[in-house]
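Revision sheet: structure tokens.
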Amino acid sequence: MKRSIYSFIVGLIIVLVSQSCERNIYFVPTDQERKLVINSYVIAGDSIYIQVSQSQLFSDLSHDIKVRDINPDQLEVSLLINDEKVPVEMIPDSIFGHRGHPNLVAKKAPQPGDRVTISATYPGVKPVTSSLVLPAIPSIGKLSYKVKEEEPEVDHTGSTYTYDPNTGKRQETKIIRTTYSKGFYFDLSVYDDTEQRNFYLLSITAVEHRVIDGVRTPIIVSRKFKTDDPNFKEASFGIPFLDESGNSDYFILSDTQFKGATYPFSFSTKVVYRTETEQGGELFVRESDLPEDLEVVVQVAQLTEGAYYFLRSMNALSAAAGNPLTEPVRVHTNIEGGLGIFAGFSFTSSSTLIPMKH
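Predicted:
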């Protein structure tokens, strides 16, 4: 189960990284030179994925994505882990979604503390390079929770109307709905290293365990989580990342405010187990179809500084989309001689299993 959640999060990171230069961001270098674009993420203990394309200039009036195509036979990509050269293989275009943008993988998995360097050359553009050191796996406590019976929520959801022929008046019948729920309050501690500035990414995953055809089956579900922390915003996604700015679907933070201390990460969710609807003196009751268990998983990653500022700039870009009054946003890049992002992540997780049938 944890592997499938991890794979899903990796997939989201692929989308984020590939979006940095696949969205309509028409960056115009002052020298009007086309540049090589490298988008790559490095996750401790996993393969390294790389996508290569060319930048699009304002003079490309058609904005045709083909102008950014790369001929794989003319492309040279080199990858080093601790100064040791690692073989890089071509993989299908479907991994990142665009034909003509070579996608590569290095199947040797780097570990926390490893230095990873990438470089690439292609005719007609300057050579590019970037380097990172994978951060340590973050230190976190055990995810704990408490259960509380919430106050019933009563809503006037609507009305029905009938015509009384004797009085000639319209009679209203209100529809009153009452929901009963339990609140689950979670706590997790993140322990920060005092020696250096660190950057974190947090995500929450909800997994229902149901018996289907006699087999216990885990299902990742959409569930709304909320927190009283002023740095957080309420989110509801398939995997709801909580974001400090509220502009995207993940939460990133630096240790500026809690350097060398413990960061208390608290959040909650409600589970409705019974709904009563009253209409015209009649009461209709619906019991919720609860799973056998609800598993809540918190993924915590330390990320490189470049990854942190890239994600922050993507937040700003999303917030500015379609608003002509906002200032232009430059997406953060750490590719020397070119554009793109070379990002590193080291993940850990803590989970808890909550019985739901009792």
